[in-house]
Amino acid sequence: SRPHLTLGIETSCDETSFAVVAGGRRILANVILSQTGEHGRYGGVVPELASRRHVTNAVPLLQEALARSGITLAEVDLVAVTRGPGLVGALLVGVSLAKALAWALDKPLVGVHHLAGHIYANFLAGPGDEPAPEPRYPAVALVVSGGHTDLFHLQEGGGLAWLGGTRDDAAGEAFDKVARELGLGYPGGPVIDRLAERGDPQAFPFPRAMLDDDSLDFSFSGLKTAVLYELERRGWRDPQRRGELEARLPDLAASFQQAVVDVLVAKTLRAARQVGARQIYLAGGVAANRRLRRDLEAAAREAGLNLACPPPVLCTDNGAMIAAAGYAAWRRGRRDGLELDVDPDPPL
Length: 348
Ligand code: KG4
Ligand code: ZN
Prior knowledge:
- The protein is of the alpha/beta class.
- It has two domains: 5-124 and 313-331, Nucleotidyltransferase, domain 5 (2-Layer Sandwich); 139-308, 2-Layer Sandwich (Nucleotidyltransferase, domain 5).
- Helices cover 43% and strands 18% of the residues.
- It has helices spanning 36-40, 47-69, 88-105, 114-120, 171-181, 188-196, 221-233, 242-275, 290-302, 312-315, 319-331; strands at residues 5-10, 15-22, 26-34, 78-84, 109-113, 139-144, 149-154, 160-165, 279-283, 306-308.
- The strands form two sheets. A five-stranded mixed beta sheet has the order 3-2-1-4-5, with helices on both faces. The chain has a five-stranded mixed beta sheet with strand order 8-7-6-9-10, sandwiched between helices.
- Helix 2 packs parallel to helix 3 (88-105) and helix 7 runs antiparallel to helix 8 (242-275).
- It starts with a strand and ends in a 17-residue tail after the last helix.
- It binds 5'-O-[(R)-(carboxyoxy)(hydroxy)phosphoryl]adenosine and zinc ion.
């Protein structure tokens, strides 16, 4: 019999993406259109612009995903769509289309938690022959992106429980805001990552917020303020002294990045101890950060834990991860009706 085919739809932020995934694990097509370049000139995502781009791009991208996977729309067995968290207007585009498709095709519909998608990106394989990685339980998953910094417990059977998250800025948001103050453009994460390679992570003693409390929560707004205060104190916000600032950019980037990474690593290891995890999964756009990968890898190894992380294309927003999480939820019995709504805080 032919494999079960899930259509995955992602429009929660500034990527429009459609994917076809076989058996919940094998990617047949994963078409992603990123609007980052368009939003960059505004210094961040403009919600209404994102919604309008989703509207114009959605159907052509769906057609492309079907063409690349070599299937017809009628062969889709399940429609999975991000229902939140995300920008409401952007989510509505994907959810409306998903409902129309499920109705017209008379196929089941599942609304997916965006962060569950990021975690399930770890269990996908490409169209080639290599097997998809088997999920290992119990595990802890750290999802770090421009919108989220959350720790989850991945339980036996694939269920998820939330353990903690940021009380203010997300880690990626901190990278983006600090980069903007340093005049480095948007998105800031990749630029800071690159600059930090040449800098001294101990040059500036930035704070590690909430490192010493028992919670699994994070806070990054104080760190951002500390960087701004340092620029102010040294007179580096004066355009006349841009040269002086530029000479110290690698040290600033490295010191800021290390402060973020130290807290992420410490809390992830603490979470792993708490739930008795034998596996750590890393996901979200900030998972691309090289210092984070290196330090988390080292800390995990020392604690006798395995660390896994999806390839870069599956770390950022995409439809395949939504298909994977949607398929798993469907297998556990989840079904959504055509009254499905977007939800800023949906069930996992
Ligand atoms: O997951 P993603 O593509 O979109 C959201 O759902 O937010 O993540 C984008 C975020 C941005 O904040 C970007 O600055 C950050 O991920 N990012 C990085 C790196 N690459 C992307 N942050 C740190 N280091 C990187 N190498
Ligand atoms: Zn995301």
